[in-house]
Design a protein that fits this description.
alpha+beta, Immunoglobulin-like, four-stranded mixed beta sheet, 14 strands, 27% helix, globular
Length: 301
Protein backbone atom coordinates (compact mmCIF):
# COMPACT_ATOMS: atom_id res chain seq x y z
CA UNK A 1 0.00 0.00 0.00
CA UNK A 2 1.29 3.50 -0.85
CA UNK A 3 2.73 5.11 2.29
CA UNK A 4 0.69 8.32 1.80
CA UNK A 5 -2.57 6.36 1.59
CA UNK A 6 -1.56 4.35 4.64
CA UNK A 7 -0.86 7.56 6.59
CA UNK A 8 -4.24 9.05 5.54
CA UNK A 9 -6.14 5.96 6.66
CA UNK A 10 -4.26 5.87 9.94
CA UNK A 11 -4.96 9.53 10.78
CA UNK A 12 -8.64 9.10 9.84
CA UNK A 13 -8.83 6.21 12.33
CA UNK A 14 -7.38 8.44 15.03
CA UNK A 15 -10.04 11.08 14.32
CA UNK A 16 -12.81 8.51 14.60
CA UNK A 17 -11.44 7.64 18.02
CA UNK A 18 -12.16 11.28 19.06
CA UNK A 19 -8.64 11.88 20.38
CA UNK A 20 -7.43 15.41 21.00
CA UNK A 21 -5.81 17.40 18.23
CA UNK A 22 -2.52 17.35 20.13
CA UNK A 23 -2.62 13.56 20.30
CA UNK A 24 -3.47 13.22 16.61
CA UNK A 25 -0.63 15.58 15.67
CA UNK A 26 1.77 13.52 17.79
CA UNK A 27 0.92 10.30 15.99
CA UNK A 28 1.00 12.03 12.58
CA UNK A 29 4.59 13.18 13.18
CA UNK A 30 5.46 9.74 14.50
CA UNK A 31 4.13 7.85 11.48
CA UNK A 32 5.74 10.37 9.11
CA UNK A 33 9.15 9.75 10.68
CA UNK A 34 8.65 6.00 10.50
CA UNK A 35 7.69 6.31 6.81
CA UNK A 36 10.82 8.33 6.08
CA UNK A 37 13.28 6.04 7.78
CA UNK A 38 11.75 2.76 6.68
CA UNK A 39 11.21 3.18 2.96
CA UNK A 40 13.98 0.62 2.42
CA UNK A 41 12.89 -1.53 5.33
CA UNK A 42 9.26 -2.36 4.66
CA UNK A 43 9.18 -5.34 6.98
CA UNK A 44 10.21 -3.12 9.90
CA UNK A 45 7.58 -0.62 8.82
CA UNK A 46 4.85 -3.21 9.03
CA UNK A 47 5.91 -4.18 12.54
CA UNK A 48 5.91 -0.57 13.71
CA UNK A 49 2.50 0.05 12.12
CA UNK A 50 0.95 -2.96 13.82
CA UNK A 51 2.36 -2.00 17.21
CA UNK A 52 1.20 1.59 16.87
CA UNK A 53 -2.24 0.62 15.60
CA UNK A 54 -2.74 -1.80 18.50
CA UNK A 55 -1.73 0.91 20.96
CA UNK A 56 -4.24 3.39 19.53
CA UNK A 57 -7.12 0.90 19.57
CA UNK A 58 -6.43 -0.01 23.17
CA UNK A 59 -6.00 3.60 24.25
CA UNK A 60 -9.25 4.40 25.98
CA UNK A 61 -11.24 2.14 23.67
CA UNK A 62 -11.81 5.19 21.49
CA UNK A 63 -13.03 7.27 24.42
CA UNK A 64 -12.64 11.01 24.24
CA UNK A 65 -9.23 12.23 25.29
CA UNK A 66 -9.19 13.71 28.81
CA UNK A 67 -7.29 16.75 27.56
CA UNK A 68 -10.14 17.50 25.19
CA UNK A 69 -12.75 17.04 27.91
CA UNK A 70 -10.86 19.52 30.06
CA UNK A 71 -12.90 19.05 33.24
CA UNK A 72 -10.82 19.88 36.32
CA UNK A 73 -12.75 20.13 39.61
CA UNK A 74 -11.08 22.02 42.45
CA UNK A 75 -11.71 22.43 46.18
CA UNK A 76 -12.26 26.19 45.83
CA UNK A 77 -15.44 27.25 47.60
CA UNK A 78 -17.74 28.97 45.09
CA UNK A 79 -20.78 29.77 47.26
CA UNK A 80 -24.54 29.19 47.17
CA UNK A 81 -27.60 31.32 47.92
CA UNK A 82 -31.33 30.93 47.35
CA UNK A 83 -33.99 33.62 47.46
CA UNK A 84 -37.67 32.71 47.80
CA UNK A 85 -39.49 35.45 45.94
CA UNK A 86 -42.58 36.38 43.91
CA UNK A 87 -43.72 39.08 41.49
CA UNK A 88 -46.61 40.03 43.79
CA UNK A 89 -44.29 40.55 46.78
CA UNK A 90 -43.42 44.21 47.31
CA UNK A 91 -40.53 43.59 49.71
CA UNK A 92 -39.08 41.10 47.21
CA UNK A 93 -38.66 43.89 44.68
CA UNK A 94 -37.73 46.58 47.19
CA UNK A 95 -34.84 45.00 49.12
CA UNK A 96 -34.90 41.30 48.20
CA UNK A 97 -33.81 41.75 44.57
CA UNK A 98 -30.84 44.03 45.36
CA UNK A 99 -29.65 41.59 48.04
CA UNK A 100 -29.70 38.49 45.83
CA UNK A 101 -27.88 40.43 43.10
CA UNK A 102 -25.24 41.41 45.66
CA UNK A 103 -24.75 37.74 46.55
CA UNK A 104 -24.45 36.98 42.85
CA UNK A 105 -21.82 39.69 42.41
CA UNK A 106 -19.87 38.39 45.39
CA UNK A 107 -19.91 34.79 44.12
CA UNK A 108 -19.11 35.07 40.43
CA UNK A 109 -18.72 31.30 40.01
CA UNK A 110 -21.23 30.31 42.67
CA UNK A 111 -24.85 29.32 42.34
CA UNK A 112 -27.45 31.98 43.14
CA UNK A 113 -31.10 31.02 42.71
CA UNK A 114 -34.45 32.80 42.74
CA UNK A 115 -37.25 30.33 43.37
CA UNK A 116 -40.68 31.85 42.76
CA UNK A 117 -43.70 31.20 44.96
CA UNK A 118 -47.22 30.16 43.89
CA UNK A 119 -49.26 32.85 42.14
CA UNK A 120 -46.15 33.82 40.18
CA UNK A 121 -45.81 32.87 36.47
CA UNK A 122 -42.31 31.54 37.15
CA UNK A 123 -43.40 29.19 39.94
CA UNK A 124 -42.78 25.44 39.69
CA UNK A 125 -42.65 22.44 42.00
CA UNK A 126 -39.00 23.06 42.86
CA UNK A 127 -40.12 25.92 45.11
CA UNK A 128 -41.95 23.53 47.43
CA UNK A 129 -39.15 20.98 47.13
CA UNK A 130 -36.43 23.43 48.14
CA UNK A 131 -38.29 24.95 51.06
CA UNK A 132 -39.13 21.51 52.49
CA UNK A 133 -35.53 21.42 53.74
CA UNK A 134 -34.72 25.14 53.70
CA UNK A 135 -37.85 26.76 55.08
CA UNK A 136 -39.03 30.25 54.25
CA UNK A 137 -39.85 30.81 57.89
CA UNK A 138 -43.39 31.87 57.01
CA UNK A 139 -42.84 34.80 54.64
CA UNK A 140 -40.90 36.08 51.68
CA UNK A 141 -38.45 37.30 50.63
CA UNK A 142 -36.49 34.64 52.47
CA UNK A 143 -32.80 33.83 51.98
CA UNK A 144 -30.41 31.00 52.64
CA UNK A 145 -26.67 31.31 52.12
CA UNK A 146 -25.04 27.92 52.38
CA UNK A 147 -26.73 26.29 55.38
CA UNK A 148 -27.67 29.55 57.12
CA UNK A 149 -30.97 31.40 56.92
CA UNK A 150 -29.76 34.98 56.72
CA UNK A 151 -30.06 38.39 55.08
CA UNK A 152 -26.64 39.65 56.15
CA UNK A 153 -24.82 41.63 53.46
CA UNK A 154 -21.56 39.81 54.14
CA UNK A 155 -23.05 36.30 54.30
CA UNK A 156 -21.71 35.28 50.91
CA UNK A 157 -18.24 36.72 51.38
CA UNK A 158 -18.03 34.89 54.73
CA UNK A 159 -19.01 31.62 53.05
CA UNK A 160 -16.39 32.11 50.33
CA UNK A 161 -13.75 32.74 53.00
CA UNK A 162 -14.72 29.63 55.01
CA UNK A 163 -11.96 27.50 53.48
CA UNK A 164 -11.63 24.76 50.92
CA UNK A 165 -14.57 22.49 50.18
CA UNK A 166 -14.44 18.70 50.54
CA UNK A 167 -15.67 18.28 46.98
CA UNK A 168 -15.60 20.20 43.74
CA UNK A 169 -17.28 19.88 40.38
CA UNK A 170 -16.63 20.94 36.82
CA UNK A 171 -18.87 20.58 33.78
CA UNK A 172 -19.48 21.35 30.16
CA UNK A 173 -22.79 21.58 28.33
CA UNK A 174 -24.34 21.97 24.92
CA UNK A 175 -27.85 22.61 23.63
CA UNK A 176 -29.39 20.94 20.60
CA UNK A 177 -32.98 21.94 19.93
CA UNK A 178 -34.88 21.41 23.18
CA UNK A 179 -32.28 19.09 24.70
CA UNK A 180 -29.45 20.20 26.96
CA UNK A 181 -26.63 17.73 27.60
CA UNK A 182 -24.43 18.27 30.65
CA UNK A 183 -21.17 16.39 31.24
CA UNK A 184 -19.87 16.53 34.82
CA UNK A 185 -16.82 15.52 36.80
CA UNK A 186 -16.88 15.55 40.60
CA UNK A 187 -13.76 15.17 42.74
CA UNK A 188 -13.56 14.63 46.50
CA UNK A 189 -10.90 16.11 48.75
CA UNK A 190 -10.61 14.32 52.13
CA UNK A 191 -14.41 14.02 52.43
CA UNK A 192 -16.34 12.87 55.49
CA UNK A 193 -18.15 9.56 55.25
CA UNK A 194 -21.76 9.78 54.09
CA UNK A 195 -24.08 10.13 51.13
CA UNK A 196 -23.39 12.84 48.57
CA UNK A 197 -25.92 14.26 46.13
CA UNK A 198 -25.71 16.44 43.04
CA UNK A 199 -28.27 18.92 41.70
CA UNK A 200 -28.21 19.96 38.05
CA UNK A 201 -30.49 23.00 37.89
CA UNK A 202 -31.49 25.15 34.91
CA UNK A 203 -31.64 28.92 35.39
CA UNK A 204 -32.69 31.84 33.24
CA UNK A 205 -31.69 35.51 33.41
CA UNK A 206 -33.02 38.72 31.92
CA UNK A 207 -36.80 38.19 32.04
CA UNK A 208 -38.49 41.57 31.70
CA UNK A 209 -40.16 42.60 34.95
CA UNK A 210 -40.83 46.30 34.34
CA UNK A 211 -44.19 48.06 34.62
CA UNK A 212 -45.18 47.04 31.08
CA UNK A 213 -44.43 43.31 31.41
CA UNK A 214 -47.91 42.15 32.41
CA UNK A 215 -47.97 39.18 34.75
CA UNK A 216 -44.14 39.36 35.05
CA UNK A 217 -44.26 42.87 36.50
CA UNK A 218 -42.31 42.98 39.77
CA UNK A 219 -43.94 44.86 42.63
CA UNK A 220 -41.95 47.09 44.98
CA UNK A 221 -39.22 48.28 42.62
CA UNK A 222 -40.03 52.01 42.55
CA UNK A 223 -37.09 52.84 44.83
CA UNK A 224 -34.73 49.95 44.06
CA UNK A 225 -35.08 50.26 40.27
CA UNK A 226 -36.23 53.87 39.66
CA UNK A 227 -35.56 53.64 35.90
CA UNK A 228 -38.26 50.98 35.50
CA UNK A 229 -35.67 48.53 34.12
CA UNK A 230 -36.16 45.56 36.43
CA UNK A 231 -35.34 42.08 35.10
CA UNK A 232 -35.83 38.73 36.78
CA UNK A 233 -32.48 36.95 37.09
CA UNK A 234 -31.38 33.56 38.47
CA UNK A 235 -34.88 32.20 37.80
CA UNK A 236 -35.11 28.51 38.71
CA UNK A 237 -36.63 26.72 35.71
CA UNK A 238 -35.91 23.01 35.93
CA UNK A 239 -33.89 20.18 37.47
CA UNK A 240 -32.22 17.29 35.65
CA UNK A 241 -33.60 14.88 38.26
CA UNK A 242 -36.95 16.62 38.75
CA UNK A 243 -36.10 17.39 42.38
CA UNK A 244 -34.35 20.31 44.05
CA UNK A 245 -31.66 18.30 45.80
CA UNK A 246 -30.84 16.02 42.89
CA UNK A 247 -29.68 12.42 43.03
CA UNK A 248 -27.06 10.46 44.95
CA UNK A 249 -23.62 10.30 43.33
CA UNK A 250 -21.41 8.72 46.01
CA UNK A 251 -21.42 6.99 49.38
CA UNK A 252 -18.33 7.21 51.59
CA UNK A 253 -16.11 8.45 48.72
CA UNK A 254 -12.36 8.03 49.04
CA UNK A 255 -9.95 10.94 48.99
CA UNK A 256 -9.18 12.00 45.40
CA UNK A 257 -12.12 9.92 44.11
CA UNK A 258 -13.50 11.18 40.80
CA UNK A 259 -16.98 10.58 39.39
CA UNK A 260 -18.07 11.28 35.81
CA UNK A 261 -21.76 11.58 35.02
CA UNK A 262 -23.74 12.84 32.03
CA UNK A 263 -27.25 14.28 32.13
CA UNK A 264 -29.87 15.32 29.60
CA UNK A 265 -32.58 17.88 30.32
CA UNK A 266 -35.52 18.97 28.19
CA UNK A 267 -35.70 22.75 27.99
CA UNK A 268 -38.59 25.01 27.02
CA UNK A 269 -37.87 26.81 23.72
CA UNK A 270 -39.47 29.93 25.19
CA UNK A 271 -36.67 30.25 27.76
CA UNK A 272 -34.04 32.82 26.86
CA UNK A 273 -30.53 31.32 26.92
CA UNK A 274 -31.05 28.94 29.86
CA UNK A 275 -27.90 27.66 31.52
CA UNK A 276 -27.10 24.85 33.96
CA UNK A 277 -25.63 25.21 37.44
CA UNK A 278 -24.46 22.45 39.77
CA UNK A 279 -24.64 22.03 43.54
CA UNK A 280 -23.10 19.25 45.66
CA UNK A 281 -24.81 18.30 48.93
CA UNK A 282 -24.09 15.89 51.76
CA UNK A 283 -27.24 14.26 53.08
CA UNK A 284 -27.47 14.03 56.88
CA UNK A 285 -30.89 12.63 57.86
CA UNK A 286 -30.37 13.11 61.60
CA UNK A 287 -29.85 16.39 63.39
CA UNK A 288 -31.26 19.78 62.56
CA UNK A 289 -32.34 21.03 59.14
CA UNK A 290 -31.25 21.53 56.50
CA UNK A 291 -30.51 17.84 56.06
CA UNK A 292 -28.99 18.44 52.66
CA UNK A 293 -25.83 20.19 53.78
CA UNK A 294 -24.25 22.45 51.21
CA UNK A 295 -20.75 21.39 50.06
CA UNK A 296 -19.88 23.31 46.89
CA UNK A 297 -21.27 24.61 43.60
CA UNK A 298 -20.35 25.91 40.19
CA UNK A 299 -21.85 28.23 37.60
CA UNK A 300 -20.40 28.39 34.09
CA UNK A 301 -22.38 30.77 31.91
Amino acid sequence: MNRHIRTFIFINLLCQCQLSKATINYYYVYITIINFYTQKHRILMKKFSLILLTFVLVLGACKKDKEEEGLTPTSTQNGFAINYTATWCGYCGDWGAPLIHKYGTDATKGVVICSHASGDPMNNSLYTDFKADRTTGGGIPSFWVGDSKTTADDAMTNLLASGSATAGVDYSYEVSGTTMTVKTKTKFFSPDAGDYYMSILILEDGINGNSSSGQYKQNGVTNSYPNDDYHHDFVLRASASGSAYGTAIATDPANEAEIDKDYTITIDPAWNKPYPVIIIWKYEPSGSAPHFKYINSLKKK
